[in-house]
Specification:
704 residues, mainly beta, disordered C terminus, Immunoglobulin-like, single chain, flat, 6 domains, disordered N terminus
Length: 704
């Protein structure tokens, strides 16, 4: 029962532990692996070191597990072993060397399952002293030397150095503990040499001490080159030279070469003797060399020959120093001569290339300058020696042309402006002088192809014509320009704003003219403004000093304050005074308003008169009625035949009675139907007709 529980527990844990292998017959897990270095990670050279790899493995079953151990130094495998036991793996490093220094770790592999240990670093200190050995200690000049440098007991990659003092003679990288090399000394005498080495353990390296110092004696060979030059007296140009290069103490002629040279120029070569002849020239180097080469040995014999000039290199000069086109000039060619060997008459001068200049004397040539630049060279010849001067370039100057005078930009009265003066043709430098009238105002020297600019200020327009310009380029001719002819811009002044029609006469429907006028040089840009608005009402440019802005069909909305501004090329803005415009009513509107007002006044007058008259009558009637006793009136109505009419009786504006009258059909009818109805006034009774009246309460009738 316990075994079953153990098996079940192991099976369950295998799902959560990556180091467990489960199959039908066995179960195992790699629990840990460690690497250790014994006796220490830091040891000295010669210590016996052991690298131990220990693994802890848990298993179930009877089968023996095969373990594969691998030990690494850095990334390189240094040891591998298979084991079927649980014992630790030991990797011995007997008599450790610096080359064993490095980082180690181990790995275990069981049936494909692996685990790595942590890294441990081993450091081994101490290097053996190198040993230098030479095949012998005495050598002849040019003989080859064999040297061997050994690092006793060292292993790994070793870099060797062979030194003479601080100079490295040879160096090389090997995988053994010794280094062999061959070399030669170029100098005779005693030489001290030593060696040392470096053990390379990536990424580190360790340098050894220096080896023993060995002395090497290099003996000179008795063979020598010999250089002879004839004649051995003072040598002049043109003298023949014989040069001989030979060997002294020649033991055997094998593998020997001679080389004869002048400066860097090789003249001749041979085995045992070289002979060469030349003409002495002062222009060529006087250094001669005889060089002997035998194997790796080279010996040199050298001499310097001084050659005296028969005549010096000629110099070519011109007079005058500056010449203008087609003017006369003189070229002079001259050399210094060795009078003890050469007469001046033997020296001949010529010019190259051919030119129209005429020889006046030995080395003197005269004629007119050409219209273009020309290169002249003087050639001097004597006794087969030819020498040439440096090239002289004659650049005939061009006389300056009549300058042109103009205004740079614009000329504004009272403001500084520039006057431009320039000639189309003329060699530089050119001196330009500005004159006003005939007074010099200033001079400008121009060394580049550009105009001269003078700054002036004028106060009157006519002053502009007083300016002239003079040009000169070191020649007797100094042409004068014409007088300056340019437009002078007068700044604007006195801007006025005129209104048409006159201010008191401006009415609705009129055509308004706002006329701006000023003094100054046109074109003039005018702008009209209305106070209260930033933007101008109108802008125009005129070629005159005045112009207008028209407003047709005026209305009351055009009333306001106006002004204008003006500017010309002087860029000074002038402003007029402000003008206030009031647009009056049109004439016909005034007439209508006058008529209406007159009519209203008339109606008011008539109404007032009638009102006062009516009031007066009412006052009188009120006074009469108030004096009588109260009377009750009864309206008596008589039958009225058709066609009767009531005739009112008025007092003032009040009706006091009315009478019905028949129309005039016949005189006999009025007594039948005629009746009078009235109100009693002043105590009088109404008159009653023949028919009895019909009494109604319509009109008041007095009651007794």
């Amino acid at each position: 029962m316990g075994l079953l529980l153990l098996l079940t527990s192991t099976l369950l844990s295998s799902y959560f532990h990556p180091g467990i292998m489960v199959d039908a017959q066995r179960i195992f897990t790699i629990r840990d692996i460690t690497l250790s270095i014994e006796p220490s990670t830091d040891v000295v050279r010669g210590t016996n070191v052991t690298v131990r790899c220990k693994a802890i493995v848990s298993s179930f079953g009877q089968e023996v597990l095969s373990r594969e151990y691998t030990i690494y130094k850095g990334n390189n495998k240094v040891y591998t072993k298979n084991s079927s036991t649980s014992e630790d793996l030991l990797y011995p490093l007997p008599d450790a060397r610096v080359s064993n220094t490095g980082k180690y770790h181990c790995r275990i592999n069981i049936k494909g399952e692996e685990m790595n240990s942590r890294v441990e670093k081993l450091t081994v200190t101490g290097l053996s002293k190198p040993v230098l050995h030479l095949d012998k200690d005495v050598f002849s000049e040019g003989e080859e030397i064999m040297a061997t440098c050994t690092a006793p007991g060292e292993t790994g990659s070793i870099f060797f150095y062979l030194h003479e003092g601080n100079n490295v003679l040879r160096e090389g990288l090997v995988n053994t503990n010794h280094f062999e090399t061959k070399f030669r000394f170029s100098r005779v005498g005693i030489h001290g040499i030593h060696c040392k080495y470096t053990v390379i353990t990536m990424p580190d390296s360790f340098m050894s001490n220096e080896s023993n110092i060995l002395s090497v004696s290099v003996e000179e060979l008795s063979i020598k080159p010999v250089l002879e030059i004839f004649p051995q007296t003072k040598i002049y140009e043109g003298d023949p030279l014989n040069i001989l290069c030979t060997i002294r103490n020649l033991a055997r002629p094998d593998n020997i070469h001679l080389y004869l040279s002048q400066g860097i120029k090789l003249l001749s070569s041979g085995n045992t003797k070289v002979n060469h002849s030349i003409v002495a020239l002062a222009s060529e180097p006087g250094d001669f060399e005889c060089r002997l080469e035998m194997g790796n040995v080279a010996k040199v014999a050298a001499k310097t020959v001084l050659v005296t000039e028969l005549f010096s290199v000629p110099t070519l000069t011109m007079s005058p120093a500056e010449v203008f086109q087609k003017e006369r000039m003189t070229l002079t060619c001259k050399s210094e001569i060795a009078s003890e060997r050469l007469n001046r008459g033997e020296l001949i001068y010529t010019l190259e290339p051919d030119s129209p200049l005429t020889p006046l004397a030995p080395g003197v040539f005269s004629g007119k300058a050409l219209l273009y630049d020309f290169n002249y060279t003087c050639v001097a010849k004597a006794k087969g020696i030819v020498k040439r001067s440096e090239t002289l370039t004659v650049c005939p100057k061009i006389s300056v042309s009549t300058p042109k005078i103009s205004v740079e930009g614009k000329a504004v009265l009272g403001q500084p402006f520039k006057i431009r003066c320039q000639s189309d043709v003329g060699s530089l430098p050119i001196n330009y002088t500005l004159l006003k009238g005939y007074d010099q105002l200033g001079t400008i020297s121009v060394r580049l192809p550009q105009p001269a600019l003078f700054t002036v200020t004028i106060t009157k327009p006519e002053e502009i014509k007083e300016y002239m310009c003079e040009a000169k380029n070191n020649h007797k001719n100094a042409p004068l320009s014409q007088r300056l002819n340019a437009t002078v811009i007068e700044p604007l002044m006195g801007l006025t704003l005129t209104v048409t029609p006159h201010l008191p006469e401006i009415s609705e429907g009129d055509h308004l003219y706002l006329i701006c006028g000023t003094k100054g040089t046109p074109p003039v840009t005018f702008k009209w403004y209305r106070v209260g608005k930033e933007q101008p009402l109108h802008t125009t440019t005129s070629e005159k000093n005045n112009t207008d802005y028209q407003v047709p069909n005026l209305s009351k909305a055009h009333s306001g304050t106006y002004y204008c501004e003006a500017v010309n090329h002087a860029n000074n803005i002038v402003r007029s005074e402000e003008v206030t415009i009031e647009v009056r009513l049109a004439l016909w509107k005034k007439a209508v308003i006058g008529g209406v007002c007159l009519l209203v006044v008339s109606v008011l007058v008539v109404g007032s008169v009638l009102y006062f008259r009516s009031k007066r009558a009412n006052d009188e009637e009120s006074s009469v009625v108030s004096s009588e006793p109260d009377v009750e009136y009864t309206e008596v109505v008589h039958p009225q035949p058709a066609g009767t009419a009531r005739v009112p009786l008025r007092k003032g504006t009040d009706t006091v009675y009315s009478e019905l009258k028949n129309p005039p059909h016949g005189a006999g009818d009025h007594h039948d139907y005629g009746s009078v109805v009235y109100a009693e006034l002043n105590g009088k009774q109404p008159e009653i007709g023949h028919h009895p009246p019909e009494v109604r309460n319509h009109l008041p009738v007095p009651v007794d």
